[in-house]
TrEMBL record:
It comes from Arachis hypogaea (Peanut). InterPro entries: K+_transporter (IPR003855), K_trans_C (IPR053952), K_trans_N (IPR053951). It is a multi-pass membrane protein. This is Potassium transporter. The chain crosses the membrane at residues 59-80, 152-174, 194-213, 220-242, 268-287, 299-319, 344-369, 390-414, 426-445, 452-474, 480-497.
Length: 780
């Protein structure tokens, strides 16, 4: 009993060590942006008060609003409510959208199958099933019946995503520009304007230029930098409270916030645009949930971030309450409240903290664009995984340089913290509004809670965020137009790409070839079969794609083994390796035609070509060996999900293979097979920088049917002969008589995006000499 009790205590200690370690790491990744807010909140809020003596009650009112906004939105809304709406540990706008897609059939993905709902991570009924006559059941039926509502839901998710991308442009510019603004206290205004902008631009260029190295190389410094920064601002806040105004704690009463809004009226409402900057970065707690855990993020925020920032804001207010005659705008800045002897060290730490905060939002932008691309809502881009150990650290070259150019443009164009703050504030509050709307649907559809709870959530947080949104929107001409323009451009790109992808899939479905046609031309398929494996890349999950009939009509030969390969994404973060492949047979067994559907989650990492081919061959062989869906008849006219088998990757297969390495060949002799009549279970090889070719072979076993043995041997022989990838290249044109808007969207915008986007991840990794493109013209 004592031993069991000791083991239990040790496991609890280890689990708490893990949680505390994650909490420590989250400080550098999640809270970098949020911790930079004291640099610009008061300066943006009081930007119209230059030259006047600001009343103490007004300063107290602003502090009260900052405190309650910071308490209600990040603490109550995100920490206690939104973090619970994770999608198998993942967070963010698309996590909420994928949750809704699984609990109601509102998915925008074209090739959805019933078999996808059997995935382990689907977890559709983890909260139980809503009663048939409940409001949740009626709402679900309404969403599933009306395509318009499904489009509105998709557009809502895309708006939130576009604003996150806009925030990825504005936050680095605002954070870095606010950090270097500390130079204005040590030089004249004439000299300062020639230093501030170039310094900010140099830091931004360096930040984006280092992105391809990945954050894992300097990531261990992030948490210490943010902790040091939080310690500095909280210590300075405590000093200012006791030195200038120990009674500033009274401003935490909501009475001062109410009085400020009542007395200031329009001025107080306009000031909300600056106050909302105190919650910029709150969305990162939910968006970066996949890298940490709910408990670790909650511990870091409630024990370190929240008290540190509250003390920092109180210290600034205490200083301003005794120094409220303002002659220059920078008198409202953060650095004025810093003791003069500490300004230079604090300036250096602030710049480092701004870089860390910017890094977090840039990485988050890369991540959400990858998710959008996986769900067919963004053109394909090159995704580089910068770390083999840390999941989710990616780099997208095209987006990186685009963000850098846009960052430099807004920095040079505005050269002003106030207008940058107006732009960033609108982007942030729009994302929060979208989260509130989607979260209310999650409460009803996924959690099966009372509709009054969802209405209460929307009423409380939606009202607060709507006030901030209106205050930001009024400042349209003072910088708030930037996120709107950026969101409009990205929204157009994303919606046109998604629309074109759906129309292309509909065209493929309408023009697919039936299996009757395949059976009618006989076992030989009317052409000469050459050695090798032919992988026909298609989006279809059933039927024969038109490119196959187009190919065999124009060429007299084809491969001895043909696989219709569909690489699809499902609305879950990850698909387990043992559930990755869905394999079936197309037509009679003698045709050697197979269908393989490879399923990925929107955060999964795709394998390279050699390892992918190995897993594919293993899956085919395992499918053939089990014979669960094999059919010897020649009149199979239909194909459905129930005639396909779920097969895992090589690590879960019983396959024989060895590395074909001339320097160090792996000798698998007869002694290795002694004492067993089954296929030997091994793991897939580790791919080294120098790729090693893997050879497959089938051991003799009396338990394997002769026909299955012949088919397996033919598969292995074809694999040794080589693998060829047949890829369709589509050119889309709108039909004659289509509207002008449709012609412009398809003929101009979509075709421009298609020509200038990357090929699929499979196509990118395929050697040029192994690929063959088949052109098709689509009239939609």
């Amino acid at each position: 009993m004592d031993l069991e009790g000791g083991t239990r205590r040790n496991s609890k200690i280890e689990s708490w060590k893990t949680v505390l370690t994650l909490a420590y790491q989250s400080l550098g990744v999640v809270y970098g942006d949020l911790s930079n807010s004291p640099l610009y909140v008061f300066r943006s809020t009081f930007s119209d008060e230059v030259g006047d003596a600001v009343p103490v009650d007004k300063i107290y009112g602003v502090l009260s609003l900052v405190f309650w906004t910071f308490t209600l939105v990040p603490l109550v809304k995100y920490v206690f409510i939104v973090l619970k709406a994770d999608d198998n540990g993942e967070g963010g706008t698309f996590a909420l959208y994928s949750l809704l897609c699984r609990h109601a059939r509102v998915s925008s993905l074209p090739n959805v199958q019933v078999a996808d709902e059997e995935l382990t991570e689907y977890k559709k009924d983890c909260y139980g099933v809503a009663p048939e006559r409940s409001f949740a059941s009626r709402l679900k039926s309404t969403l599933e019946k009306h395509k318009v509502l499904q489009r509105i839901l998709l557009v809502l998710a895309l708006i939130g995503t576009c604003m996150v991308i806009g925030d990825g442009v504005l936050t680095p510019a605002l954070s870095v520009f606010s950090a270097v603004s500390g130079f204005e206290l040590s030089m004249s205004r004439e000299h300062h304007r020639y230093v501030e902008v170039p310094a900010a631009c140099i830091i931004l260029i360096g930040l984006f230029a280092l992105q391809h190295y990945g954050t894992h190389r300097v990531g261990f410094l992030f948490a210490p930098i943010v902790i040091t920064w939080l310690f500095c601002i909280s210590a300075i806040g405590v000093y200012n409270i006791f030195h200038w105004n120990p009674h500033v704690y009274k401003a935490l009463s909501p009475y001062y916030a109410f009085q400020f809004l009542r007395n200031s009226q329009k001025g107080g409402w306009m000031a909300l645009g600056g106050i909302l900057l105190c919650i910029t970065g709150s969305e990162a707690m939910f968006a970066d949930l996949g890298h940490f855990s709910q408990l670790s993020i909650k511990i870091a925020f409630t024990s370190v971030v929240y008290p540190s920032l509250v003390l920092a804001y109180m210290g600034q207010a205490a200083y301003l309450s005794r120094n409220h005659v303002v002659r220059q705008e920078y008198h409202f800045g953060f650095y004025v409240s810093v003791p003069e002897k500490l300004r230079w060290p604090v300036l250096v730490i602030a710049i480092l903290a701004a870089v860390v905060g910017s890094q977090a939002i840039i990485t988050g932008t890369f991540s959400i664009i990858k998710q959008c691309s996986a769900l067919s809502c963004f053109p394909r881009v090159k995704v580089v995984h910068t770390s083999s150990k840390i999941h989710g650290q990616i780099y997208i070259p095209e987006i990186n340089w685009l963000l850098m150019l846009l960052c430099l443009a807004v920095t040079i164009g505005f050269r002003d913290t106030r207008r940058l703050g107006n732009a960033s504030g609108l982007a942030v509050i729009t994302v929060m509004l979208v989260t509130t709307c989607l979260m209310s649907l999650v409460i009803v559809l996924c959690w099966h809670q009372n509709v009054l709870l969802a209405l209460g959530f929307v009423f409380i947080f939606g009202t607060i965020e709507a006030l901030f949104f209106s205050a930001s929107l009024v400042k349209f001409l003072e910088g708030a137009w930037v996120p709107i323009v950026l969101a409009f451009v990205f929204m157009t790109v994303m919606y046109v790409w998604h629309y074109g992808t759906l129309k292309k899939y509909e065209f493929d479905v309408q023009n697919k070839v039936s299996i009757n046609w395949l059976v009618g031309i006989g076992p030989s398929i009317g052409i000469v079969r050459v050695r090798g494996v032919g992988l026909i890349h298609t989006e279809l999950v059933s039927g024969i794609p038109a490119i196959f009939s187009h190919f065999v009509t124009n060429l007299p030969a084809f491969h001895q083994v043909v696989v219709f390969l569909c690489i699809k994404h499902v609305p879950v973060p990850h698909v387990r390796p043992e559930e990755r492949f869905l394999v079936g047979r197309v037509g009679p067994r003698d045709f050697r035609l197979y269908r393989c559907i490879v399923r990925y989650g929107y955060r999964d990492v795709h394998k390279d070509d050699i390892e992918f081919e190995n897993d594919l061959i293993c899956s085919l062989a395992e499918f053939i060996k089990t014979g669960s869906t094999a059919s010897n008849s020649t009149n199979d006219e239909t194909e459905s999900d129930d005639k396909m088998a779920v097969v895992g990757t090589c690590s879960g297969h019983t396959m024989m293979m060895k590395e074909d390495n001339s320097d160090n060949a792996v000798n698998n002799n007869a002694d290795d097979l002694a004492g067993t009549s089954e296929l030997k279970e091994i793991k897939s090889p580790v791919i080294q920088p120098k790729k090693k070719r893997v050879r497959f072979f089938v051991p003799e076993s009396p338990k394997i049917d002769t026909g299955i043995m012949e088919e397996l041997e033919e598969i292995m022989e074809a694999r040794e002969a080589g693998v060829a990838y047949i890829i369709g290249q589509s050119h889309m044109r709108a039909k004659a008589g289509s509207s002008v808007l449709k012609k412009f969207g398809i003929n101009v915008v979509y075709e421009f995006l298609r020509r200038n986007s990357r090929s699929s991840s499979l196509v990118l990794s395929v050697p040029h000499q192994s690929s063959l493109e088949v052109g098709m013209m689509y009239q939609i």
